[in-house]
Amino acid sequence: MTAVRTADVLVAGLGPSGRALAARCAHAGLSVRAVDPSPHRVWTATYGAWADELPSWLPENVLAARVESPGVWTTRPHVLDRPYTVLDTAALQRSLSLESVAVTQARVRSLAPGEVILDDGQRLRATHVFDARGVPVASKSAQQTAFGVVTDAETAAAALEGRSAWFMDWRRDNGTAETDTPSFLYAVPLDDERVLLEETCLVGRPALPLAELQHRLGVRLSTRGVAVPATAPVERVRFSVDGGPRRHDGVLGFGACGGLMHPATGYAVAAALTAADPLAAAIRSGSDPYRLLWPRSARAVAAIRNVGLRVLLGGLRPAEVPEFFAAFFDLPIDRQRSYLSRRTDVVGTLDGMCRLFGAVPSGVRGSILRGIR
Hints:
Helix content is 34%, strand content 27%. By secondary structure, it is α/β, with parallel strands linked by helices. The protein folds into three domains: 3-39 and 98-135 and 243-294, FAD/NAD(P)-binding domain; 44-92 and 139-239, Polyamine Oxidase, Chain A, domain 2 (Alpha-Beta Complex); 297-372. The strands form three sheets. Strands 1, 2, 8, 9, 10, 11, 17 and 18 form an eight-stranded mixed β-sheet that branches. A seven-stranded mixed β-sheet has the order 6-5-13-14-15-12-16, sandwiched between helices. Strands 3-7-4 form a three-stranded antiparallel β-sheet.
C-alpha cells in the first residue's frame, strides 16, 4: 500500500456539506485533501434556507430567490415574518471553490483517526479526518420523500393563490382522507420565472412512495386549476432524516453524516455552511473540532429535536398533524427560529416546545406524550 503525505484536513465526500468544509478550510489557509467517487458531479437538488441562517461570506449571487413572508396553511393560513431563500444550486457549487484543495477521485474503503484507506489500498493521511458522505437510505430508516414539478410562474399562480410561496400547505385537496399519512405542498420560486411545486412527506417510517406523492400532487394541482405540461422538469427527493454518528471510531462526521441535519425538517445545508468557518478556525487554533461542533448545549438541543422527530413518527395521528403545526407557527418567530435554526439555544428551544405543548388541543397533547414515551 502507498501513502500520501499528511494534510491538515481530509474530507470524505464532496456534497454541499463536505465541499463547504473543504473550501472554507482551504480559504482559512489549511492544507486540505478531499475524496469523492464523483467529485465534479453537478448538483441538481433544490436547497432552501431561512435568510438569517446563512453565513455572511456566502456570495449574493447564490441566492436565486427570496420570499419576505412565506405562507403556511395548517388548519388556517399563517404568514411568517421571516425571509426564506432558495439557493441557486449551480452558483452555490461554484462558490465553494476547490482550487486549493487536493481532490482524489476514489471510493473510501475505511476511515480511521488520521487516515483514510481507499478501495485501491492507497492510504491518505491527515491531522483531522471528516466523514461528509451523507447518510445511506435504509428501508427501515425514517425518510423524507417528495415529488415535484417545475413550471413557469404564470402556470403556478393558481396553486400559490396570491402568495409568493407556500412553505407548508397541509390542506387535503390532494385527494387524501384524514386517516392517510399526511403530506403538504411546498411551493417556492426558483428564480424570477420558475416555480417548484412539490408534494412532500415530511417524515415517514416507512416512507411514502414517490408514486403516491406524484399522484397526490396531480390531484392537488388539478383541484386548483393548475395544468402542468407533461414535459415539465421533475424533482424526486428521498433521504434519511435519522442522522448518523457524530463521531465514530475517532472520525468526526460533518453535515448529515455528522448530525447537522435537523431530524424533524431534513434541513442540513445552511447548518453546514454556517459551521464550516468556525470549524476551520478551531482547527487552526489547535482546538478540539468535536467540542466546537458539539458543546453540551448543542447536544441538548439535538436531543430535544429528536423528541420532535419521535412525536411526528409515532405520536401524532394523521388528522392531528395540521393542528400541531398550527400551534408551532403561532409561536413567536424567535421561538420558531430557536427550534428550527439555533443549534445551541437550549432555553429558547425548550421554551418554544413548552409553549407549543400548552397551545395544542388536549387530544394532541396526549398524542405528544405517547410519542415521547
